[in-house]
Amino acid sequence: MMDHFHIPYALPTVLLASALLLKGPTFVRAWRDPDVRATTLLLTWATAVLVVITPVNIDRLNRLTGIPNIASPWAYSFLTAFCATGLTMIMRWREAPSPRRHRRMITVYWIYAGIVAGLWFTFLMAHVPEPRIYDLDTYYANTPWMREHTLLYLLAHLVSCLVAAAMLWKWFPAVTNPWLKTGVVFQQVGYAMGLVFDALKLTAVSARWSGNDLDYLSTHAAPPFALLEASLVAVGFIAPQAGPFLQQRHRDQRAYRRLHALWRTIRVVQPAGPRARLTPWTPLDLRLLARRQRIHDALRLLAPHYDDALYRRAHATAAAAHGESQARGIAGAVAIQAATDAYQTRATHPADGPAPQIGTDITDHIDAIASALHRPRALNAVRRGLSSTESVDTHA
């Protein structure tokens, strides 16, 4: 039966724990950044709450410590810390740094630290000898000190959800950043789920005070809303940070793959200096930077073998069938491939006047050239057009 109850907790717990692990390297690199620290703490508290409230872990804690219901102050302390961190993060987002903001955040931390102390005090004062895995709040709803323990965490959580929702509601119209706006929406929905959780729990506990039994509201109806709140609020705080990062990573990944064909073409050019040692674990932005530098270094070394006249003819041929950007890319690809062939045979292109140089016709259109190299049919069509033109010129 316990297996049945802990299954719903697995997915959000794994998701939050995974987000926390992924956040780890960022925390190590930028632990001085208060936003990074706060996000890491928020994920830590949210993950800890879900780990502790899982029924199988509640039972495990009871057995390991020999203290019945010890999971209660632990779980509710983590939940309280989660609420405090969420409120202060919203303050960071809404307000510019100032002594007033700093004082308000410190006040929030002290208030919720006092609540955590109160949770442990009331639990230690309560007499709760019977371990309760699923219905602790309602089973001990009329027990001195445990009653206050339950009310303390529920009211603290209720107030934090109301305050956070109010701050977000007032702030939402002023938010222009799409990722931040997305995060605010997730948080608003998450805190709404928290309010539903509190309402169900308080209704069930109040029913016990009046001699009625609505325990199912606490044991079955409320927990899914707690899971949704922790997950949605955490996602809301992660989205504004992770969204731009993932968006930039996607752009870098596309650029890295797009440059592959050009990088493969110029690999025959021996670099002027030692190559950087890169591994699959090297950050993508560094690998992209190294690939771009490798291409530009190779183009500089290919300059003595570059045929600008070939580029002009290829551009004229490609422009007849393609747009200007594509024509420049195709012409550049044809010219660079010819230059690498000449480099391998050590052939140089004689030029009257200054030495051959690879100018902006190539360097300003690297991405278009890289894209053209992924379309061999278009390149071959231009080469055939150049060959037929040369044949006509020869016979003439």
From TrEMBL:
Keyword Transmembrane helix among record annotations: yes
Signal peptide: none
InterPro entries per the UniProt record, alphabetical: DUF6545, MAB_1171c-like
Residue ranges constituting the DUF6545 domain according to the UniProt record: 251-366
Keyword tags: Membrane, Transmembrane, Transmembrane helix
A family per Pfam: DUF6545
Top-level taxon of the source organism: Bacteria
Coiled-coil ranges (or none): none
Regions crossing the membrane: 40-58, 70-90, 110-129, 150-172
Protein name: DUF6545 domain-containing protein
Native source species: Streptomyces pyxinicus
